[in-house]
């Protein structure tokens, strides 16, 4: 016979404890513990059925997991070739970045050949239709449901036998047997668990939209990202049309891939030539601007690095970076002062990556250093000059990965001069004919070349 016991349940995160306290020890929330009586479950015997029989790998039906190409090359690139039936995809991003717009466009494309149900808990059906009409998205073949009760949403999805189910957003859904208010950790966890079970049981591909916290993480329990098959982030700076779709986790593809979109009046459109779009405004030599050949996922891109210095008016020099790591800028300036004898200790330094991009790879260091040299010595840099290389704490210029792919992109865009690590230069099997490669071992060499040859 089952015995009842009393526990204290946190309405915020779902944690249980045997004693009451003012603060939950799991999530830190105050006054969220409620006393509840639960019944301890008795042990049961697991009976084997035909569904539990193990299969050989050769007996598994591969056609059941054949991908559905979306038709958008950026989406298909990020997902690894398309959507896998029965997969659970989580898309996160800042408010207003374009998550709902992007998913609505994908739902409209998939509805041409599959049954799609778009369930919105944030907007009414008429509001979703108005947004689709404003963007010119054809939604005639897509089912629409405005509801926050997830159990009814799943029942309707079963009735329609949908191939794709879109949830916008997971924080607005609720289940009657789950504890906590709508959007709480316990509700988000239970709703995601129900969607995961539904996806695997029916073979329906489920796409979930999730909000992010101020730290940039998906709002809800960290367990949420472990439960889903794919975690995507849509990133973009306010005021810039560029949007980057990154895969933080992908069980069916490469997380190094990413998709690039541009926000237009008719929605998000795929960017075919990112480098050309980012460098469209460059036409003449300028002081403090250098082109960097980076990688967005596994594809090359060219970005413009801008630097500006100004004598500090206070006792402590200011360092500001946009699109470049702030801590890395501080370290780089210390290296310049120590090993390249560059006077930046009494200068306010500002660094910006144009176009709203955020570059995290260390290979951008040399371009930042060259831009700072340019503005300090008042020497303009040719629009056909680029720099690639990581800078160590000793001032040495270190090798970067996939240098051939970067140089190929620079050659395609008509660049003539490239500063690069000497180790990469020595490892090149073939030197590009149209590029003048300038190998560097140390920052001092870069400074010396700038002073001896102002015509960069």
From TrEMBL:
Instruction: List UniProt keywords, sorted A-Z.
Output: ATP-binding, DNA damage, DNA repair, DNA-binding, Hydrolase, Metal-binding, Nucleotide-binding, Stress response, Zinc, Zinc-finger
Nucleotidyltransferase as a keyword of this entry, yes or no, is no
Motif stretch (RadA KNRFG motif): 249-253
Positions of the region Lon-protease-like? 348-456
- RecA family profile domain sequence ranges: 64-212
What the protein does?
Answer: Plays a role in repairing double-strand DNA breaks, probably involving stabilizing or processing branched DNA or blocked replication forks. DNA-dependent ATPase involved in processing of recombination intermediates, plays a role in repairing DNA breaks. Stimulates the branch migration of RecA-mediated strand transfer reactions, allowing the 3' invading strand to extend heteroduplex DNA faster. Binds ssDNA in the presence of ADP but not other nucleotides, has ATPase activity that is stimulated by ssDNA and various branched DNA structures, but inhibited by SSB. Does not have RecA's homology-searching function.
Q: What's the record's remark on domains?
A: The middle region has homology to RecA with ATPase motifs including the RadA KNRFG motif, while the C-terminus is homologous to Lon protease.
Family label: Belongs to the RecA family. RadA subfamily.
Protein name, as recorded: DNA repair protein RadA
* Origin species: Negativicoccus succinicivorans
Name of the gene this protein is made from: radA
